[in-house]
Amino acid sequence: MSNQSVVNVIRSQYSLMQGWFEGTLAGVNDELAHFDPPGTVTSIGAQAAHVVTGLDFFLLGVAAGKQPLLVGSFADKSGVSEPPPAGGEWSEWAARVKIDLPALEAYSKAVFSEIDGYLASISDEDLQQEKEFGPAGNQTILWALNILILNTFSHTGEISAIKGMQGLKGYPQ
Fold first, then answer.
1. Sign of the alpha-carbon dihedral angle for 160, 165, 166, 168
2. Nearest by Cα to 71 from 58, 85, 89, 57
3. How many CB atoms lie within 10 A of CB 160?
4. Are 160 and 171 in contact (CB under 8 A)?
């Protein structure tokens, strides 16, 4: 790697991830957000809420040690009718959650802004700090950042596919 720090590379990846996620959600209306696709995949709204709340709780709450926005400044205005379950099983939640898209968009932008501020404040050495990430146990912050990048891109792909099933453009590019 060049003289760029690992944190700056991760920060750049999060910026690209945000653009890809938000671009893929462009054009989603209330009906499409709550469309129940066939099979075991969940709605676009549930996918988006899962992504944003996961970033909020795992990166801001656990890694950064801050109060998640969902239970702080965005309590009752996140656009998510109920928080996802703490465990890994969220299909029942996904089937009943209701999404207010403009509110979720504002919450998402706030989460990504907080993440950017957090990443701007840490060093490469901080990435090796271990934290307790629920069922995954003790893991480094770098591990969590990478897992959440993968999780976000995976769900963004599902959102794109659901849009495509409806005859819409999925990915922004």
1. positive
2. 57
3. 20
4. yes
Is the pLDDT at 2 greater than 70? The verdict is no
Mutual angle of helices 44-54 and 101-121, in 10-degree steps: 30
Q: What is the DSSP letter of 169?
A: -
- Gap between the Cα atoms of 115 and 63, Å rounded: 10
Is 60 within 8 Å of 114 (Cβ atoms)? yes
Radius of gyration (Cα) for the chain, nearest Å?
A: 16
Q: Please write the tens of the pLDDT for every residue from 45-92.
A: 999 999 999 999 999 999 999 999 999 999 999 999 998 887 767 889
- pLDDT tens-digit series, residues 4-16: 899 999 999 999 9
Q: How many CA atoms lie within 13 A of 43 on its CB side?
A: 21
> What is the pTM (predicted TM-score) of this model?
0.94
- Whole-angstrom Cα distance, residue 49 to residue 98? 9
